[in-house]
Amino acid sequence: MKAWQVPELGEPSQVLTAVDMDIPEPGSGQVVVKTRATASNFPDVLMCRGKYQVRPDLPFTPGVELCGDVTAVGEGVDGLAVGDRVYGTSELPHGGFAEYAVLSAATCFPAPESLEDGQAASLFIGYQTAWFALHRRTQLKAGETLLVHAAAGGVGSAAVQIGKAAGARVIGVVGGSDKAEIARQLGADVVVDRHAEDFVAVVKEETGGRGADVVFDPVGGDTYRRSTKCIAFEGRIVLIGFAGGEIQEVALNHALIKNYSILGLHWGLYNTFDPNTVRHCHEELTVLANERKVAPLVSEHLSFDEVPDGLQRLADGTTVGRVVYQA
Questions:
Q1: Residue 139, CB half-sphere, CA atoms under 13 Å: how many?
Q2: pLDDT digits (tens, 9 = 90+) for 142-200
Q3: Which residues make Cβ contacts (< 8 Å) with residue 25, sequence separation at least 6?
Q4: Could you give the residue ranges of the DSSP H alpha helices within 167-306?
Q5: Which residue intervals define the domain Enoyl reductase (ER) in the entry (predicted)?
Q6: Is residue 230 within 8 Å of 211, Cβ to Cβ?
């Protein structure tokens, strides 16, 4: 089979290497799938650079989120059969930027029939992360104001749709007019281009000075610090990641004075400590997808040869919507 491998660490466009290799065999609790589509994710970029918390041995094939057809089932797997169209997270080193990939049965679910392959490939990590952030960690309520940073990105776009489905008023922050249009298509009530406007001032104006009840922050750094200036009384800030490159220090006295909560979310831990809720989240997302309340916005379909360039553009922050390798 054809696959992209990372034999050494560096930028995706520089280190991804096309190889021919044997189709992998499933281990216990695993399935092998013929890849239909693989979504590009920032963790793929970070793993190419060797800067992610998961550091697979070299060489490995990235592509942590995909949709495919089951072709082989390992020992101890129940509920999945050859021919099933599924989506989920890959088991490295056999990621989704290849003709075949390996998935753990524990994080592999039936793909919603309402979604095409690229959308299904984009549903798992970002949408599960947003669902856990908004429903489990911050307990977002209908009628509240939700501020979403990087609202046109992979996880931010999911937060916009899930926030709207929960009945919140969503303010999305993006960088650039093209990304602003994406956020509007996703359903954001108010869109702020951070290159042209101050999101702090916009949030205060839109809420009559009260501030946002929930802040969804996958950026960190100065974005987090400035979000504390427009958080409401008893508001909640949930930290998803640090795509901005800076892990900020938190002034806890400020949280005390303004009565707001700072919450962290490492979604991957739920797969270990609470897999039943992960399955429940899948069921909830399937309902929302079938009701057309959530649908990943796929902006680009990449051929096999275009994978390194597409992943590099994601790394450089120039993509909009979801960029997907379509097999």
A1: 3
A2: 999 999 999 998 899 999 999 999 999 999 999 998 899 999 999 999 999 999 999 99
A3: 32, 72
A4: 177-186, 199-206, 222-227, 252-258, 268-273, 275-290
A5: 10-325
A6: yes
Q: What is the pLDDT of residues 250-262, one digit of tens each?
A: 788 788 888 999 9
DSSP-derived secondary structure letter, 245: S
**Residue 268 exposed, middle or buried by CB count within 10 Å (0-12, 13-18, 19+):** middle
How many whole angstroms separate alpha carbon 12 and alpha carbon 204? 40
State the pTM of this model.
0.91
Please return the burial class of 242, using the count of CB atoms within 10 Å of its CB with bins 0-12, 13-18 and 19+: middle
Give the separation between CA 158 and CA 139, rounded to whole angstroms: 16
Distance CA 324, CA 327 (A): 9
Residues of the chain with CATH 3.40.50.720: 126-268
DSSP secondary structure letters along 8-50? S-S-HHHH-EEEE-PPPPP-TTEEEEEEEEEE--HHHHHHHHT
Which residue ranges does the chain devote to CATH 3.90.180.10? 2-123+296-326
Q: Is CATH 3.40.50.2300 the right assignment for the domain spanning 126-268?
A: no
What would the CATH number be for the domain defined by 2-123+296-326? 3.90.180.10
For residue 276, is pLDDT > 80? yes
Q: What is the pLDDT of residues 27-52, one digit of tens each?
A: 999 999 999 999 999 899 999 999 88
Give Rg (Cα) of the chain: 19
What Cα–Cα distance (Å) separates residue 2 from each residue in 15, 61, 78, 127, 140?
Answer: 16, 11, 29, 29, 44
The closest alpha carbon to 122, from 303, 300, 316, belongs to: 300
